[in-house]
Each structure stands twice: as C-alpha cells, then as structure tokens.
C-alpha cells in the first residue's frame, strides 16, 4: 500500500493500516487455519491485499459513500475488504452469516447495496434466491472457490479476479489510492451495523472512524493492550463486539487476530492459539462450563472428588487472590495445590492458559458463572455497551471486580441515570445517526446529546453501575414487588442443564417459567442413568428430567429469598418446552436474545395454562428445519409446582 502524505493523523482505519505496514510490516497481522494449517499475513501483506481490493473496486465502478455488504465467517479477507471499502470512502456493512435469505433481504434493500462480498457457495446461493428482488445489486464477489465452478452468471466474481484487476489498476494509477485515503475524515462513517430488531425492524447504526477509534483506544489503554496480544476472532462480524475487539483494536494496537477453521473447530483452535486477550458473550462461557461439567461427570470418582474439593477452595478464595485481596495462609496454600492439580489443567482444556484479560458482554452474565471463571484464575471482566455506543460504556478496573455490576464509566464516557431509572450515556463513541431514520435518531439522542440506552440501572456506593434489566422489561408483580426477568433468567442459565429460560410475572400474582433444557448436558446425565430417549421432546418430557430441573429452580428460589426487592420473584410453576427456542423460528435474535413479546404471544396458551392452575397442556408448534423445510412439533407438556420460601414472615408455599 502506498504511503499517504507525510506524518498523517492516524484518525481513520486506512491510515492506521498504512502506519502498521510502515512500522511493523513483517509482523503477523492475521492468521487463518485452512485445511489444518495456520496461514499467516503480515501487516505488509494485509496492506498490499487491501490496496489491490480497493483498486479493483474502483475498476469495477465503486463510488465514494457506497455501502458494501460483507457476509461470512471470520476470514482475513473479510476484514481486509472492510478496510478496502473504507479506503475509498465507502461503508462496510457486515451481515450475520447464519441469517436466512429473507432476513438479509431487508438490509440489502434498505442499504441500497450494489457490491456484495460473501465467503462461499452457501452465501452465494442465498443471494441468488433473492436476485429478482435486488435489482440494484451489480457485483457479487466470493472468497472460497469450492463448489463455484459451474456458476456462470456474469455478475458473480472470484475475489482473486478482483485482486488481480486491482494490481493492474494500481500499477497504472499508483497515486490514486493514497489520494483517496487522504480524502477520508475521522467523522466519516466507518461501518454500519444493523440492530437485531428485537422490538421492531432493524436499524442501520452509522458509526464513524472517530467513534470506534475512541472506543478502541479507551479500552486498549485501560487494559494496557499492546501489539503483542493474540486474539481468536470467531464471533459474528456483524456483532459490534467483534468489530471493536477484532477490527478496531487490532488496527489501533497492531496485535494479531486469528481466524478459526470453522465453527466446529473453535475449541481446538482456541487451545492451539492460546490467546492473551479473549472476548465472548455469556452464552459461550455458559457452554464452556457445561462441557466441563459433562466431562467431570464421566471422570473417575477420585478425579471428581478432587475437582469438587478444590473448586470449593476456589469459590472461597480464588477471586480474592486474583484481585489481590487478603486471604488466609491456609487457603493460599490449598489454592496453590488446586492450581497445580485442577485449575491449570482446566484452563488448558478451555484454551485460556495464556489469557491475561477476558471480557464478556452482549447480555448480563450470572454472578455464579462470573465467579466460577475468576475463581480458577481467569481474569474475566464485564463490559457494558451497545451497538450505538461501539460496545463501550463501562469497564471493570482490575482489583475492583464486582459480580453484580458492569464496572465504572469507561474513560471519556459520561453515564447518568434518568428519573425513570433509564441509563443515559454521552461521549465520543456514540453513533452518528441511524441510516435514513432521522426520526429514530431524534428519539435515541436527547437534547443534551445523551444516548438513551433503554436499560434500567443504578449506581452503587462505589460508583459501579448495576444493570437491572431492559427498562421496558422491568415490571411489577400485583403486590407491587419489582420483577426483573432477565436477572432471574441469567441465574437459571448458570445451571448446565438449563440452556434457555423465559420467565413471566409482570402484572401477575406470581412468577412462572418456560425452560429449554441443554440436550448435551441432560442427554449425558440421562445416558449415565440408563434413560433412553428419542430426541429433545422425548427427553424433556421425562419425569426424571423434570425432577432435575425442579431441583435447580428451587435452589434459585432459595437464593432469591435473600435478595431484597427481588425476593418475591421466586418461581412458582414451570414447564419444559417441547422444542428449543430458535432464531430461525423468530423466537431469538441472531445474537440469541429472547424476543420476549413474540414468545409470549406465540406460546400464550402455555402461559394461560401456567397461571390457570393446569397440570398439563397440549400444544402444536410450526418449526423451520435447517434445510428450509417446515414442519410441526406437538406434545402434551407437564406443568409442575415449585417449592418457594417465606419472605418477611409470610407462609411458605
């Protein structure tokens, strides 16, 4: 890539890339595992490919300000295409790779996409399914040529053709790209990320170079990140968290991003890379813990006894040792033994032996799950942010970790609580606007420039922010007690046997719950007890499984009774759903957040049965299969009553 003007301000991502190629050109920038072998691109390699891609786009008729959609798994060339588009003053628009064709259609039409870059044949086929509805689409590029031999449509191109075309163009016009990069401004939109559409149609969030670089710099300085870090880039590129950690911070600091071979090999690739900096939503940490517990159930009696003994030591003192707090000499010695026999091997299995700092965000993480990881010596912290804030609002300082908070306002960020309890934030990391939605922009930003998050929270005495729930979801029981469904659901999901939970109680006399079992964990539990089952629906209906889930929920009830305002939120009745909640059935967003209103409407007959005192309810539900077929799942669902605990002198149920 050519040099820009002398000593340019490093205030856009293309300028940052040019600088890295100059100062650390031979250092690894990106790796990708392909056919079992790690391939490496240095910073100079990345700059050269970005140059070729950008010049190729110019040759193909790309215009400044255009939106370019990018769809696929995390791949180096996907990230390179983002920067190539930015070099020309365009806006990259990553989409979720597991979105079905119709979900992609709205965004492609709304963003008026003419250029589309996809990973492979699967994504090409989705686009071809929509071709007649996308008259504006002019060029479709693919990265993986496998299976593409017989696709002869003239608007479909191998990215290698684009690269070769770009190299020729650059030789003929060697100064063009440097001039385009110089035209860029820090307040130009650098990326557009669409919201998940939990409560309505998705909105394109326009975020500037300045916003994302400010967020990246604040986080990097806060955690002392350097060019020596290694991270694994495996989360959807359309998610704001990945864009902050795998794109913005990498281009700011110069550290190396590593792309796994596939979704199925992430755990093996994680262990091979041994990242120093790790980011995952709570769901990933929940799944990792579930896998650990399944493995321990299959271990010998001696290993199980050792594991549970030392985990008791860890729960008692591990987090305190990590934070540098006082711990008795006896516990320090026991913890040292536990580190040798249990914690170090466990961190190795998790691929976290080298992790210096790990973050979770995207949803609240249960305090028990949070404590587990910190207790075995993993410096797991929470951050708080949203797509509209570049995932950057609050961070947890080392040594000041609280399990029930998301930390203090991040450097450069102002946070305040409105009179109605809503969290308001202001700072350089805020969105510029919603794409073609001035009405939505005006609703999201108040007259003082604060973004209204829609979350409810409070500050504790030490200035740490506690997220209670989405402001719209916080309700009250008929007795006036607070009802915070997300908080209760996260406590339930700490148990390895519970994959998803949806609780109800707003304006009702008691709390009831839907439960999705984790078929891996519960299936393993059933097999060891000789319980045969034919699938998810059959397994979830077994009395033994109901007993297992009932025991877990009643433990949560025993904990809630001591949680003040939430003591009345103990769960009185529950059922195990006959199917897993699924994004393809519109029950979850692509980031696996429950569409609470949709679920309540779809399963209204089950809610009526829970609150109507029934002990069973028949239901038949339409489902979409992975191959596109549709079908139905029907079952008679058992409803069980639960033990609850007395609150402030009231009688026990």
Short account of what is shown:
Helices cover 38% and strands 21% of the residues. The chain has three domains: 13-261, ANL, N-terminal domain (Rossmann fold, 3-Layer(aba) Sandwich), CATH 3.40.50; 280-384, no CATH class; 475-641, ANL, C-terminal domain (GMP Synthetase, Chain A, domain 3, 2-Layer Sandwich), CATH 3.30.300. The chain is α/β, with parallel strands linked by helices and 653 residues long.
Secondary structure layout:
Blueprint: H1 13-23, E1 28-34, E2 37-42, H2 43-59, E3 67-71, H3 76-87, E4 91-95, H4 101-110, E5 115-118, H5 121-130, E6 139-142, E7 156-158, H6 159-172, H7 176-183, E8 189-194, E9 204-208, H8 209-222, E10 230-232, H9 240-253, E11 256-259, H10 266-273, E12 277-279, H11 282-297, H12 301-322, H13 329-350, E13 357-360, H14 367-375, E14 380-384, E15 394-395, E16 408-409, E17 414-417, E18 422-426, E19 433-434, H15 438-444, E20 451-459, E21 465-470, E22 475-476, E23 482-483, H16 485-492, E24 498-504, E25 511-517, H17 519-528, H18 536-541, H19 543-560, E26 571-576, H20 596-602, H21 604-611, E27 616-624, E28 630-641
Parallel strand pairs: 1-11, 3-4, 3-5, 5-6, 6-7, 10-11, 12-13, 13-14, 25-26
Antiparallel strand pairs: 1-2, 8-9, 9-19, 14-15, 15-16, 17-18, 18-20, 20-21, 22-23, 24-25, 26-28, 27-28
Helix pairs in contact: 1-2, 2-3, 2-6, 4-5, 8-9, 11-17, 12-13, 12-14
